């Protein structure tokens, strides 16, 4: 596996010493390396495949942060700030990764923009399916983004079912797990291991 891709260079071993957005990004990044995504659910162990799985994991966290914003209204500035910082950290990491791969300055800016737009599209498609708990729509989105095909196959259908179960579990988590950055997706979705 391409373990060095999309890894933060200055990691702290204790999530409690990181700011929440950094801790949530590290958790999503670590979760995106779960072998079952690549061995059971059809993601390719390539740069693009790893990016797609990372987008899914970050989307789960950002979706739940958005729910906090909806529930708390004006009192939700912290959740909005964490979500924005999470996005910023993710794409700073993409920038650094591309530079370490030897992509030049002009190429990095162009590629990060393309990745940012791709992430926004995935987040919108996934969030819509999450809102509706629509396994079919989610499996189709996974087929397009993770499987690189038009029709969902068994792997995407299984992943959609797993993710919707995870969404339900995330909605039952205390808001503070997200606001403090102490959430661990792997504890919520044991079957990802």
Oligomer: single chain
What's the main sheet like?
none
- Report, as a whole number of angstroms, the end-to-end distance: 15 Å
Run of helices and strands: HHHHHHHHH
Q: What is the mean predicted local confidence, pLDDT?
A: 87
> Into which percentage range does the β-strand content fall?
under 5%
Total number of strands:
0
How many helices does DSSP assign?
9
Q: Can you tell me the residue ranges where pLDDT is under 50 for at least 5 consecutive residues?
A: 8-16
Rg from Cα:
16 Å
Q: What proportion of the residues is helical, as a percent range?
A: over 70%
Query: What class do helices, strands and sheet pairing give?
Result: mainly alpha
In short:
The protein has 193 residues and is mainly α. 70% of the residues lie in helices and 0% in strands. The protein starts with 19 loop residues before the first helix and ends in a 5-residue tail after the last helix.
Please, could you describe this protein's structure?
This protein has 193 residues and is mainly α. The chain is built from nine helices and no strands. The protein has helices spanning 20-32, 35-39, 47-72, 77-100, 105-132, 135-147, 154-171, 175-179, 185-188. α3 packs antiparallel against α4 (77-100) and α5 packs antiparallel against α6. The longest helix has 28 residues, at 105-132. The chain is globular, with a radius of gyration of 16 Å. Mean pLDDT is 87; it is low at 8-16.
List keywords for this structure.
9 helices, 193 residues, mainly alpha
Helices and strands in order, then pairings?
Layout: H1 20-32, H2 35-39, H3 47-72, H4 77-100, H5 105-132, H6 135-147, H7 154-171, H8 175-179, H9 185-188
């Amino acid at each position: 596996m391409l373990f060095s891709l999309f890894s933060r260079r200055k990691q702290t071993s204790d999530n409690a010493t990181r700011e929440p957005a950094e801790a949530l990004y590290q958790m999503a990044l670590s979760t995106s390396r779960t072998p079952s995504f690549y061995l059971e659910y059809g993601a390719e162990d390539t740069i693009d495949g790893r990016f797609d799985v990372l987008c899914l994991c970050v989307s789960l966290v950002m979706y739940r942060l958005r729910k906090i914003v909806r529930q708390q209204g004006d009192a939700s500035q912290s959740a909005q700030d964490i979500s924005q910082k999470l996005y910023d950290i993710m794409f700073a990491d993409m920038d650094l990764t591309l530079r370490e791969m030897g992509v030049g300055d002009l190429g990095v800016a162009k590629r990060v923009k393309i990745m940012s737009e791709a992430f926004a599209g995935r987040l919108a498609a996934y969030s819509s399916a999450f809102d509706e708990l629509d396994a079919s729509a989610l499996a189709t989105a996974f087929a397009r983004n993770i499987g690189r095909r038009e029709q969902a196959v068994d792997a995407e259908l299984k992943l959609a079912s797993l993710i919707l179960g995870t969404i339900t579990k995330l909605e039952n988590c205390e808001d503070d797990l997200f606001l403090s950055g102490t959430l661990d997706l792997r504890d919520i979705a044991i079957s990802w291991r």
